[in-house]
């Protein structure tokens, strides 16, 4: 351990820059009115809270968040929940919407452009290092360890990576590395991902996490902006260029993943499909879930509403407020209904004689009397009519709701309105 590591964490000289402008179209109607990083997760939090919490817990106190697609709910969440950083303590938190600062007719053209258009703001803070983060993944990671590796190796860029099944890597940047961990090739979203040598079924995928010395990155962004052929993207342009002309080092997620005493395997999820989103939330109802959100040593910070406790009422046969292997947030009232292996966000109302089974119910939804819902994601503020049944008739479900191939039904307000007004 170096003197610097012991006495002055590199995170103190680092700015975290979170890319949070993507829609996340594979989440279908869930992102009609909000960006993917603003999608609710885990009962209280939003997806972006994981990257931001990792930064805070790693000791980083300068943070910028670049937003673009339908950013209002995301910006409101950031203003409410992340306004505790104080300039007088040499801390900062900037929300950076695509505001046509470079050109009057140009929004963020790509991930690299989302940083380039704010170069003056970054340089004004003058951090020695900058870590680029994706704002749409669920994981716990100590960025200080990755920063330390970057300094120790002297690399131009350090890329966070994880091992994934080879054919699942088609949506990632995929890299080759030599025995020292140096990246020798980087391919963005290949149709036939290259395998790790000696492991034909596994690929090394980029997590969308990059560490640079700030001055070096600014030079690269200016060079890239002057190239008319560039897509202005880290994965397509910036990283491949550095791999060819500089030094790019891989950082294994296994080295910096944060595990509580109840976690056994490195947990990282791209909850970018309805199926993946539903499964990751339902996984939290396990007796020992793969992601420990109760870890007080690595808290997930978020906007915490002031709410009364959850309430369970009625104790009659067939009309008993009860929950089995479920997570129920504050301000929920389970009034004579039952839920099993389900996750309820803040302010849900469940009426008498209704049942929820493997349900993810977003804030302030209402479940009507005698409704039966199985394998569902209910969007925010949806009022489920009395007696509605979902999850028992695949053909009918597909006609009325967004039903995935694995049988998960996404239910939104417009879908319910179409039923109501027919």
Automatic annotation (TrEMBL):
Name of the featured protein? Glucose-1-phosphate adenylyltransferase
Asked if the record carries the keyword Transferase, the reply is yes
Q: Which organism is it from?
A: Aureimonas glaciei
Swiss-Prot/TrEMBL keywords? ATP-binding, Carbohydrate metabolism, Glycogen biosynthesis, Glycogen metabolism, Nucleotide-binding, Nucleotidyltransferase, Transferase
Q: Which family does the UniProt entry place this protein in?
A: Belongs to the bacterial/plant glucose-1-phosphate adenylyltransferase family.
Tell me the function of this protein: Involved in the biosynthesis of ADP-glucose, a building block required for the elongation reactions to produce glycogen. Catalyzes the reaction between ATP and alpha-D-glucose 1-phosphate (G1P) to produce pyrophosphate and ADP-Glc.
Q: Which PROSITE patterns match?
A: ADP_GLC_PYROPHOSPH_2 (PS00809), ADP_GLC_PYROPHOSPH_3 (PS00810)
Limits of the Glucose-1-phosphate adenylyltransferase/Bifunctional protein GlmU-like C-terminal hexapeptide domain: 308-411
Q: Where is the Nucleotidyl transferase domain?
A: 17-285
- Give a GO biological-process term: glycogen biosynthetic process
Kindly give the SUPFAM superfamilies that the UniProt entry links to this protein.
Nucleotide-diphospho-sugar transferases (SSF53448), Trimeric LpxA-like enzymes (SSF51161)
The Swiss-Prot or TrEMBL record annotates one GO molecular function as: glucose-1-phosphate adenylyltransferase activity
**Which residues make up the binding site for alpha-D-glucose 1-phosphate?**
108, 173, 188-189, 206
**Enzyme Commission numbers on file:** 2.7.7.27
Record keyword Nucleotide-binding present? yes
Q: How does it assemble?
A: Homotetramer.
Question: Reaction catalysed by this chain?
Answer: alpha-D-glucose 1-phosphate + ATP + H(+) = ADP-alpha-D-glucose + diphosphate
Q: In which pathway does it act?
A: Glycan biosynthesis; glycogen biosynthesis
- Residues at the site labelled Could play a key role in the communication between the regulatory and the substrate sites: 68, 107
